[in-house]
Amino acid sequence: MPDLPEIDLPETDLDLSLRRMAAAPEDTTRRLALHAELTRSEVFVLLEAEVTGETLEPRVFTLSDGPAVLAFDSEMRLAGFAGAAAYAALPGRVLVPMLAGAGLSLLLNPDADHAALLDPQALTWLADTLAAPAPETAQAVPDRIGVPALDPAVMALLVPALERRLAGLPGLQRTVLAAVRWRGGGQGHVLALSGLPESAHPPVARAVAEALALSGLEAGALDVIFPPDAAMARIAGVGLILSPAPPLPVSDQIVTADSAAGANPGLDPSKPPKLR
After folding, report:
1. Cα distance between residue 107 and residue 80, in whole Å
2. What whole-number distance in Å separates Cα of residue 129 and Cα of residue 260?
3. Selection from 93, 57, 87, 85 nearest residue 71 by Cα
4. How far apart are CA 83 and CA 30, in angstroms?
5. What is the pLDDT of residue 210?
6. What percent of the chain shows pLDDT beyond 70?
7. pLDDT of 126 higher than 60
8. CB 109 within 8 A of CB 56
9. What is the pLDDT of residues 227-259, one digit of tens each?
10. Where along the chain do its domains lie?
11. What's the mean per-residue pLDDT of the chain?
12. 142-241, which class in CATH?
């Protein structure tokens, strides 16, 4: 099937990541960036039939590399490829473990010349990364805080990865990366966050660990702390202030089940549908 006219398609971060990886397919950094973007994005998956209850049946295509499910970065791209076919909108981080458990590959934006195939091994690695337990937040007492002392190449990976992963986080006020020397010995780096309720600390620490893993960095290379206001002000005075994008404003738009032909809105990411 011919490529869709690019001018008619919405630009998405996922498609941009696909283009970057296609330009340098052996670049591990770009491949990891694609994996990270997939976990942050909503994708549109072709189905055999409309979702019924908690079960969905993806349309499986037989490729030379084995069976694969097709997913698209936008409804418009999917419609251009398959017309009014049934589909489901799913967070990438929900779809990946489902496919990994079924031994299927995932073909992203198959209509494009920069399409990418994630085989079962890649999906299993990514699913394992997403399922890793949340790291404990740092409990030691900092003795001295300073500017980050990381290699520039590491900083070039780390800063955008953290900003992408923390983008849109409700309540987040400040994000600061700093070098630390701990009281009683030991040194390293911390990511200090403020404005978040205590209940959000474990999942945010896990999100940071995911960002590190998906950047090719060791998850233990960075401790996450949630200091009180006075301590946060001192850290911000010497550390590197990061700028994750703020949450989008709440929309008044109401999406109903019949708002688009073939759509299955309202799927709860915390209760993913089961594959048939």
Report:
1. 16
2. 34
3. 87
4. 31
5. 84
6. 82
7. yes
8. no
9. 999 999 999 999 999 999 887 654 433 333 333
10. 6-131+252-275, 142-241
11. 81
12. alpha beta
**String of b and e for 211-238 (b: at least 16 CB within 10 Å)?**
bbbbbebebeebbbbbbeeeebeebbee
Task: Extract the tokens encoding 57.
Answer: 């049946």
Beta strands at 187-194 and 274-275: parallel, antiparallel or unpaired: unpaired
- From the centroid of its chain, how far is CA 177? 20
| pTM assigned to the model | 0.64
Q: Which of 205, 183, 181 is nearest to 192 (CA)?
A: 205
**Hey, what amino acid is at 62?**
T
pLDDT digit string (tens) for 135-194? 656 666 678 899 998 888 888 888 988 998 888 888 899 999 999 988 877 888 999 999
> How far is residue 45's CA from residue 109's CA, in Å, rounded to a whole number?
10
Structure tokens at 222: 């960075």
Which two tokens mark 98? 């489902």
Q: Torsion-angle region of residue 216: left (phi > 0), alpha (psi -120 to 50) or beta?
A: left
User: Around Cβ 81, how many Cβ atoms within 10 Å?
Assistant: 18
β-pair type (105-108, 66-72):
parallel
